Amino acid sequence: MTLRRERPRLPAAERRRQIIDVTTRLIAERGFWGLSMQDVADGCGLTVPGLLHHVGSKDGLLLAVLDHRDEADLISVEVQASSPREVCAALVRRNAGQPEIVRLFAVLQAESLAPDHPAHDYFAARQQKTLDGFSLLLKGHTADPDGLAVKIAAMMDGLQVHWLRDPDEIDLVAQWESAAEMIFRDLDPPTGG
């Protein structure tokens, strides 16, 4: 007689959220290449075929994690901010409260520089979307919204890496506010239309 291990049944949305949370933690610890489907399945109380039923593949799992993070960030920032400086400050405050997610993105962003990484295209498109979004927010405030958008993204990314390396010494929010004084000091008030 074979004993069958009972697994708790969760509604599909709740199970998907659990899978994303476990995967996020594991990728932040090990990177995508160090992630095993077995470890994710074990962390969720599933078999690998059960996990695949929900996500389709390891690449599908990665993209689900990335999409979930982007959706959550967008909702959070839209509620908190209206000016370019407020949008950036809201993003930094949000990231300061979720170092595991920021670490996940930093690791994946670096890994995805390799053209054969499953998230290579995702991060290239995400970078362009981020720059386009910042540039759009800055139109009417500066003569070079595209150039300033690149500087803002670079400053945010750089500060986050330093903060992740030494969180006890670096206050991400305070460092951003100091940088924002320089970045936004010369912005013009928005123009009409």
Secondary structure layout plus pairing:
Layout: H1 12-30, H2 37-44, H3 48-55, H4 58-80, H5 84-96, H6 99-111, H7 120-138, H8 145-165, H9 172-184
Helix pairs in contact: 1-2, 1-4, 1-6, 4-5, 5-9, 6-8, 7-8, 8-9
Descriptive report:
- Residues 36-55 bind DNA.
- Residues 13-73 form the HTH tetR-type domain.
- It comes from Paractinoplanes toevensis.
- This protein has 193 residues and is mainly alpha-helical.
- The protein has one domain (12-184): Orthogonal Bundle (Tetracycline Repressor, domain 2).
- It is 71% helix and 0% strand.
- The longest helix is centred in the middle third of the chain and has 23 residues, at 58-80.
What's a quick, concise take on this entry?
This protein is mainly alpha-helical. Helix content is 71%, strand content 0%.
Key structural traits:
193 residues, mainly alpha
CATH architecture tag: Orthogonal Bundle
Number of DSSP helical runs: 9
The CATH homologous superfamily name equals Tetracycline Repressor, domain 2
The radius of gyration is 20 Å
Main sheet characteristics: none
Head-to-tail CA distance between termini? 75 Å
What's the count of strands?
Answer: 0
SSE order, one letter for each helix or strand: HHHHHHHHH
* CATH fold category name: Tetracycline Repressor, domain 2
The overall pLDDT, averaged over residues, is 87
Beta-strand level of the residues, as a percent range? Answer: under 5%
Helix content: over 70%
